[in-house]
Amino acid sequence: MSKVNKKIALLWAIPALMVIAGLGFWLATQVTVKTHQSASNELAVEESKLINKKSKVGTVLDSKQPNVSAASNLLDKLFTLDWTIAFQKEFDAKAKQMTPYVTQDVVKNSLDCKADPDKMITQTGVVMTYDHMDFLPTSASATAVKGKVIVFVKSHLKDSADATTRFVYNVSYNPKTNLVTQLDRVGTYQLQSDSSVL
User: What is the pTM of this model?
Assistant: First the structure.
């Protein structure tokens, strides 16, 4: 084969190899997308199963422990008001909004019902949103439900990503009056991980 023929063959082979490499890359991408979609669908099915399971647990809780269920529902409403804050006005007005759910003693003594003289929301520009809570009842009777609550709050500054803070409370609920009688924030809960275990 002459040198000219080899050059022509090489010139035709390079684009052909590029097309083959491109097809291989495209096929690999399609396989990855299909795998991701499959995993996403499996997660959606698992999430649906967990939601159904949680719904059944809630139904059992309602029938077996109605006072605990009522306390949990009221605390959820209360913390939604307490920790969904976008502006300083909302922060300053939250004690008034929480009043229908708590006793006057809680309004007077709870840190969550105190004014913010430093105007931290205005100063920092932080936006906070209640995410969910975990209620851990320690005792339940016809007159009181007591326990601990871990409140999950998402917050962010301007366009930054959300950060989650977990506030821990000691709470008490009176089923007869349908009011929270104790709302003591004890601090924050922090998850620690050790990457050396991984």
Answer: 0.63
